[in-house]
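Example (one chain per record):
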Amino acid sequence: MNLNTLYSKFPGFIQNIGVSAYGLVREYRRFGGEYKNHFKRVIDTEFCSREELKRYQSNELSVLFKAAKTSKYYSGILNEIEKTTTDPFEILKKMPVLEKDSLRGHEEDFYTEEAKGALVFHTSGSTGTPLNIKMCKSDFRLRMALLERQKQRFGVNHKSKHLTFVGKKITSGNSKTFWRYNIFGHQLVMSVYDLAEGNRDLYISKIVKYNPEVVEGYPSALGVIASWLKAGNIKLKTRCVLVTAETLSDENKKVIEEGFGCPVVNYYGSTEGATMITQCEKGKLHIDDESGIIEFVNHNGEAAAPGEEAEMLITSFTSKAMPLIRYNIRDMAIISTEGCTCGRCSTVISEIIGRTDDMFVTPEKGHVGRLSTSLKLLPGTVRRAQIHQYTPTDFTLLIESDTQLEAQQIDIVLADLKDKLGKVKIKVEYVNHIPDGKNGKFRSQINHCKIVR
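Predicted structure:
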């Protein structure tokens, strides 16, 4: 019997004890050991010059390469490159791009000497076989220090009252208590699997009673809660909402800000330990240069210009137990054409587009992604919409709405979709509920065809 099965058999008060016990371990793992030194260091480097950042990154690259040379995958590659140059940035340029297909099933080839005793993380596996990622404790705590630095910009920290929506089943049976307490983490944990209309009052009454300073979770779940709060004209003392894991649209950001009455704070990271991108007080997204280097590559494989959609090649300094150098994480972003007045000199990102693994392929248009722009044309009465591809030319648009839309409202969306997909058939279906995925994340487009990227 695994821990999840055992947990589900316990009554609520025992589950609260279990969640808090896990929370105690979680607190030490995040904020113990070297954490204080890391936090002091990232506060000291937050407003340093570009020259200082370059020296910092040069040193961190050297440390990363030294660790990587103890792995099976990188030892030969680095030894050959270092025969021609010792400059860390030149070495990086000569390194091959690492694709996910080269990593899946071969994780052990990337483990270094620092992998001994390292933390183990598992990706969700939404695009194939899950990855087993190792990260040494010190690197993990550096990532926590960078997130804590971001929280500090908005007047909160890890000891503030947190309300967290998680993609895990935290209750069992017919319980109408969709939350559990993590006492040591100053955290009320709520389920994202029970956000049905019939549970609205239970959720809202608990949130009002708890009155969190910080709210965090998936934008899709937070959007539901925010709409409930706005409909009830409920005011909280929340200082900021941290969103994670999903692409944050402008529309959903507005809904969440209006519902919770505070700024929505976006950031980018990944289970693979990607170079982090966090938000400043001015609302701009900045690359956290202390965590690594991001190369932006356009569809032609060339360095992307500001304003151009680009895939991100990640080289994370927080991956010394399992280096992923120039790793094509298959997420996309756009470098801003404008700077920021906050005083930080790091690169500004105007948009994080999100995952590119789940794309559509049609005979006329080939690979087509990012159809969320078409779904934005749907009226506000639509709670959720999702597009499914079943054959190269057969699609279904699922719409979750209390009322059926007018023909003109649907025609505008279908015309926009067909403009991007080419000559295809799109069937429209109204449904009562479009569920999240198995990992608690919502995807707006799902491809059921077997395609090769």
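Caption: The first helix runs from residue 3 to 8.
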